[in-house]
Structure formats: structure tokens, C-alpha cells
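User: quick one - fold this with INI bound?
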Amino acid sequence: MTPVVSKAKTIHARDTRGSAAAGKLRFGIVVARFNSFITERLLTGALDALRAAGAADSAIEIVRVPGSFEIPLAAKKLAETGRTDAVIAIGCVIRGETSHYDYVASEAARGLQLAQMDTGIPVIFCVLTCETLEQAIDRAGLKSGNKGQEAALAAVEMANLSSGLRAARAVTAPRRRKRRS
Ligand code: INI
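Assistant: Sure. C-alpha cells for the protein plus INI:
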């Protein structure tokens, strides 16, 4: 237990976060082809960060879908295979002249949250929702870093956190009593 220092006093509370080591983890990455100029850069950023954290290429599975609207179903199915400890969802939605953008962006976000809540496997939201192409380029490796890298770090942390919390629950779960005959 790490002592947490607050202004008033030191609190000996359980304070948990997932580690940044990816050596033993398996990852799924769902990538949308729409705006591939951006999504391929995000994918490269995510792969670089996963490898830097210790993930083996053989532990990474990439699935491609047409657009961001299709990402949630593929992410959910991938999570359900049991082959991944976390899924990274990569897409890029750029506002156009109609309201299509709003439907695609909000359904991608809603679907991905549902996928992780339904499966219990962390699903990391790396779907850029931008007003302009310039904003997207900035977030795919230019001025604002590469959001694919950030997503990969979040995936490693959440995968480790999830397995840590699962293990803790298994230890603390109440034992069933034997029935007397
Ligand atoms: N898909 C995207 O990933 N980004 C977009 O900006 C986008 N726009 O703007 O239309 C987009 N549309 C396609 C959509 O995701 C589906 O593939 C399509 O509607 C078929 O279901």
C-alpha cells in the first residue's frame, strides 16, 4: 500500500494503477480505412508505443474496417474472442457540410463504450473527431503529438489494471460453504 499524502494527513488507502509494461499482454487494434491518411499514422504511433512498452508483434492483431461507424462491432467481436487484453479503436471523423459527422462520431463513441462495458475488456477510444483536416494532421504526429501513441499507453495501463482488479476480486471473493448432509 502506498501512503497518499494529503494536505491534512497521510492516508493509508489502497491506491491502484495499471503498470506500463506490455511484455505479457495481447492487443487488438481496429482501424478504419476512411481517412486512412490519418488513421495509418495513428496506427504507426500505436504500434511504436506498444513495441516500446515490450509488446511482441505476435501479440498484436490488427483488424481493418471501412469507417468509424463499423469500428464498435469489430472491437466487440475481437474482445469476445479472448485473444486480447485490450482493444485500441482507431478512426478519424472530420466534420463535413452535413450532420453525417455527428452520427458517425457519436455512434462510434457510444458503441465503443458499450463494447468495453459488455465484454469487460478495455476498449481505448482513439477516434479523432475534428473540425478540419489540419486538426486531424496535428493529432496524428504533428503539433499535438500522435494520439495513437497515447491510446497505446492507455491500453497497456488499462489491461494491467483490469487483470490486477480481477485478481484482487478472486482473492477477496467469499468462499462457498460446504453443505452438511
Ligand atoms: N467515416 C469515418 O471514419 N470518418 C468520417 O469522417 C466519415 N464521414 O465523414 O462520412 C465516415 N463515414 C463513413 C462511415 O463511417 C461508414 O463507413 C459508412 O456510413 C457506412 O456504414
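One thing worth noting: The first strand starts at residue 4 and ends at 5.
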